[in-house]
Structures are given as C-alpha cells and as structure tokens.
C-alpha cells in the first residue's frame, strides 16, 4: 500500500468515510484513526498496530458537547474539568452508550473520551458525522510518534494517509482520568495536563487508579513496559551510571545540564533553558534518534517530579531495561 503524507483534510475525510485508517496530528502525539462507530474500520487499528484486542481505544470528538451523545451519567466534576481543559490533553473515562462498539472499549462499560487540541484535526472532526477511535500511531509497545515522519517510519506502507500537522506541541500522551462512585477523580495515566492543574480546578486530591499494573491493567499506559526504545535504558545519577557502563557506548538524556566528556552527538539535553514543557516535547524524538545511533545503553536522569515532569518520569520508567523482561 502506498502511504501519502499531506495536509488535505478532505482526503483524510474520504479515507475515513470509506472505513480506512488515517494518522491524525494532535497536540499530544499522532493518532491512528478510524471511524469509531464502524467495527470493521476499528479492527484495522488493532491489526496495523499489532495491538492486543483487550486494550481499549480513546474516542476523539470535535467538542465536549458532541461527546455527550456517546456517554451517560457524566459527573459534575467532569463538566467542570472539560470546561477548563477541552480541547486539550485530558481524557475522560465515562459510562458508554450502546452506540460505541464493545470492540472500541474492549468490552468495558466505560469509554475514554478526548477532545484533541489541534486545528487540522478539529477541522476534520467537524466535517465528520462520526467520532474517531485513535490510539497513538506507533507499533504496540514502541515510542509514540510526535511527527508525521515518525508515523511514516513506523507505519509507512500500512495505511493510506498521514495528515501532517507539524510536530506535536505537548509531546506526551494525554492524562487519563476516571471517577469513582463518590465522584473522586482517579488518575489512570499521567500526561499533558498535570495533576496539580486538575487539583487546583476541583480543590481536592486526585487519587491513583485502583488497578495494579501487574495484573490486568486497565490501560496500557499502566503496563510496566511501554513507550520503550529498543536500546536498553537506565535511569539515575548520570555520573554513577556512566561509571557503571564505562565499557559501553552510551547516549545520555538530561534535563538542562551538559554532561562533560560525552560527544554532542550522543547527548540529548531536553531543555537547556530548564522548561519541563520543552523537555516533554523533545523526549520521544530524542529516544527515537538514540535508537538510530546504535549505542549499547541510554542513561537518563530523573526529572523534577512536578507538573509535566511526572509524566516524563513515568514514560522513562516504563522505558527502563529492567521492565522489558
Ligand atoms: O494523547 C493521547 O491520548 C493519544 C492521542 C492520539 O489522542 N492517544 C493515546 O492512545 O495515547 P493510546 O491508545 O496509545 O493510549 C490510550 C490509553 C491506553 O492505555 C488504553 O488502555 C486506555 O487509554 N484506555 C482507552 N480506553 C479505555 C477504557 N475504556 N478504559 C480504560 N482505559 C482505556
Ligand atoms: Mg499508545
């Protein structure tokens, strides 16, 4: 199959209406989209990604208002958070209506809903009369794509069209939240919207989601190994790790400081001016570049555990060598 990369939402619309897959840009990462109401189209997502069918998909809608036709019993806090953070990098787990196929939610009563904040994709969604099921457009387990070229490198030849909306400005996947029976907010995956931002809107703590990652994770973002480069990655103090791997060819990932004695080509400073936002934006592209350098190990420092820094640490942790076994 020939894969075309372009910026034409009309072409994207035609493929989607025809039950084919299109990669779409979002502010977080690129998605692999299909008509969420068409099971045959949705099956193709699982095939192309090599994704286990027990792993549910996020449904993307043009507006929060339109999303409401697919869900029941929306908690008041969901409305409050949606008003503030949609369109944006926040995904809501809500009770689904029957119109959403079970395949999309992997049999769960809950569907993940997101309003992405990207002008091209919002324009596309506005022209469609169905929502889009879309996971990140990477092969299952690998690093999510933040550019159209990343998508092409992974899925070229397997999908007809990549809608190119430029590099993703957030660079990490959306934050996924749900609600318990008391309407407490539960965190299923940290991401583009920080816990602090959510807590300041609802004036209470966000609680960790109950499922343990080892058994039956509710979200693949909860799997221990995920978002992983092919090169083994270790997190910790860079100097200590360099000593430990002195016989090996290493690449480093640091927040803002330059590492003495490592060639520029092999060191990735994610934000020289110390912005966690910028670091998040650069993380996945850096991991992909390092995979192409064919070094023995990646050593990364721990990032400040605040704001989007938590999501950066979460992704680095899941990319760790010891979690890949
Ligand atoms: O930023 C994002 O969220 C990107 C862009 C494309 O929107 N999408 C994304 O999708 O990261 P994906 O499939 O790579 O990750 C979505 C996560 C998975 O871990 C999945 O298990 C979880 O959301 N999820 C989806 N539907 C769910 C449901 N009904 N219940 C529990 N978890 C769900
Ligand atoms: Mg993913």
What does this structure look like?
This protein is α/β, with parallel strands linked by helices. The chain is built from eleven helices and 16 strands. It has helices at residues 9-17, 39-49, 64-67, 76-85, 102-105, 119-127, 148-155, 195-202, 238-244, 276-293, 309-319, and strands spanning 4-6, 22-24, 31-35, 58-60, 71-72, 90-96, 110-114, 132-133, 161-163, 175-179, 185-189, 207-208, 233-235, 250-254, 267-269, 297-300. The longest helix has 18 residues, at 276-293. The chain is globular, with a radius of gyration of 19 Å. The structure holds threonylcarbamoyladenylate and magnesium ion. Residues 26, 28-29, 31, 55-58, 91, 93, 105, 108, 110-112, 114, 116, 134-136, 173-174, 176, 218-221 line the site of threonylcarbamoyladenylate.
The poorly predicted ranges are: 212-217
The backbone outline, from C-alpha atoms, is globular
Bound molecules: threonylcarbamoyladenylate, magnesium ion
**Helical proportion, percent range:** 25-40%
Between the first and last Cα atoms, what is the distance in angstroms?
A: 34 Å
Report the C-alpha radius of gyration, rounded: 19 Å
Total strands: the figure is: 16
- Main beta-sheet strand count, sense and barrel state: 12 strands, mixed
Mean pLDDT over the full residue set: 94
Strand content: 15-25%
Helix/strand/pairing category: alpha/beta
* Number of alpha- plus pi-helical segments: 11
Q: How do the helices and strands follow one another from N- to C-terminus?
A: EHEEHEHEHEHEHEHEEEHEEHEEHEH
């Amino acid at each position: 199959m020939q894969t075309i990369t372009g910026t034409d939402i009309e072409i994207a619309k035609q493929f989607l209406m025809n039950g084919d897959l299109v990669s779409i840009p979002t502010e977080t990462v690129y998605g692999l989209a299909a008509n969420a109401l068409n099971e045959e189209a949705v099956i193709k997502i699982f095939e192309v990604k090599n994704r286990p069918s027990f792993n549910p998909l996020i449904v993307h809608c043009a507006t929060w208002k339109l999303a409401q036709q697919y869900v029941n019993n929306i908690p008041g806090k969901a409305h409050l958070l949606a008003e503030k953070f949609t369109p944006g990098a926040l995904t809501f787990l809500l009770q689904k209506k029957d119109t959403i196929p079970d395949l999309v939610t992997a049999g769960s009563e809950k569907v993940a809903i997101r309003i992405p904040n990207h002008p091209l994709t919002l324009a596309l969604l506005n022209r469609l009369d169905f929502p889009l099921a879309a996971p990140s457009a990477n092969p299952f387990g690998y690093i999510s794509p933040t550019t159209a070229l990343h998508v092409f490198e992974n899925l070229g030849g397997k999908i007809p069209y990549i809608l190119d909306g430029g590099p993703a400005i957030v660079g990490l996947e959306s934050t996924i939240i749900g609600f318990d029976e008391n309407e407490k907010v539960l965190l299923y995956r940290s991401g583009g919207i920080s816990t602090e931002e959510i807590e300041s809107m609802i004036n209470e703590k966000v609680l960790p989601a109950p499922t343990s990652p080892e058994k039956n994770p509710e979200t693949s973002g909860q799997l221990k190994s995920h978002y992983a480069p092919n090169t083994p990655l270790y997190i910790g103090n860079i100097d200590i790790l360099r000593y430990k791997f002195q016989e090996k060819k290493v690449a480093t990932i640091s927040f803002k400081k330059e590492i003495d004695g490592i060639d520029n080509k092999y060191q990735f400073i994610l934000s020289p001016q110390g912005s966690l936002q910028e670091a998040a934006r650069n993380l996945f592209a850096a991991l992909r570049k390092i995979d192409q350098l064919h070094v023995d190990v990646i050593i990364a420092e721990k990032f400040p555990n605040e704001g989007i820094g938590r999501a950066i640490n979460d992704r680095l942790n899941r990319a760790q060598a010891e979690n890949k076994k």
